[in-house]
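[Automated response] Your request has been received and processed.

Submitted sequence:
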Amino acid sequence: MAKRGINRLTARTVATAGVGYHCDGDSLYLQVTQGGDGSLNRSWLVRYATGEIKMSASGKSRRAERQMGLGPYPRVSLKEAREKAQEALRLTASGQDPVEAKRASKSSAALANAKAMSFAECAEAYIRSHEHGWRNDKHRAQSRNTLATYAHPAIGPLPVAGIDVGLVLKVLEPIWVSKPETASRLRGRIEAILDWARARGFREGENPARWRGHLDKLLPARSKIRRVEHHAALPYSAIPSFMGELHERDATAARALEFTILTAARTGEVIGVTWDEIDLRERVWTIPASRMKGGRQHRVPLSDAAITILETQAQRREGKFVFSGGNGRALSNMALLMLLRRMGLDVTAHGFRSSFRDWAGDCTHFPREVIEAALAHVVESKVEAAYRRSDAIEKRRKLMDAWARFCVEETQTGEQSL
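Generated structure:
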């Protein structure tokens, strides 16, 4: 290595140095190159010997050399270049390679910056990466709104790597009893975001928002906080007389409610039904996956009574919707509820699904799997899953025909058979 001597560089010589390498001593060099436009570019580098041994053409062994850039002049001054060169030489004296140490330092800094991502930043990144798989805009809006309202004020600006049980409880405890449904969904969203952050390398360790075997030991179960409120339903024994009264009403909402009861469908599925979903020849209503709660296409076998309603609506057709609310729009989602209120009933349209389920369980011998498939419920058991894969539409057709016969009779005639 060159030793420092009387020929050390000065600021003046650096500024006027020509093309080539100019040694300052102690392995520091000024490299001057000429650009395409004729201008001169000056930068600093340090040369040092590595631990690798190389053989020369004459057979002599020598330690391999390596060089590392220290930055351009004048952004890096002569004084700064000398300090950087000395630091590099101290690393080589301790057995380290300055280039590799520099790379490791950059990697550590990048990792530290990544782990410094805030919870709010991770939440937004998580939503962006998953929202295209969510069924509707309402779900996206709810995810952002609940996080912005309840989580971000407490933990949003904090590094996601530092979110612990105490901070999660700080978010959840104020609303766990007063708003159990919201709190439960919020906990699930926080858990998902923290899982995403861990998978991306932004945090380590267990998920502090996990429920089973963790938060369930610290917070009361939602079922113990507030009794689950089911949709108010009409007893199935009252269905035939109610259907008779409903049939006397000449209104689109009445026909839609009749159709809802006969198909045991959800209110949203009925008010949104379009004519291209109906196959009168095959007597099937096919609800696309995009309109189903479970995100899977569902076929509904149509009874004679349901077909009669569709034929009636076809004579009044005003657009693409079977039950039109006027001006080419679907019927309002409040129309059925308001009709029930005008009829003096404190029940919901959705509650008729419960009426159907109770009737099917009490008055028929249809398998549970067929009944659950008719309701398009989420499949849990392997047996029910098998029915969903095979559709079981012919078995369900018999079930829905039996239900229609029960609904349109004035009095219950006893137990229905397969």
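Summary generated for your ticket: Residues 1-6, 410-418 have pLDDT under 50 and may be disordered. The beta strands are 20-25, 28-34, 40-55, 61-72, 278-279, 284-287, 298-301, 324-326, 329-330.
If you did not submit this request, please reply to this message.
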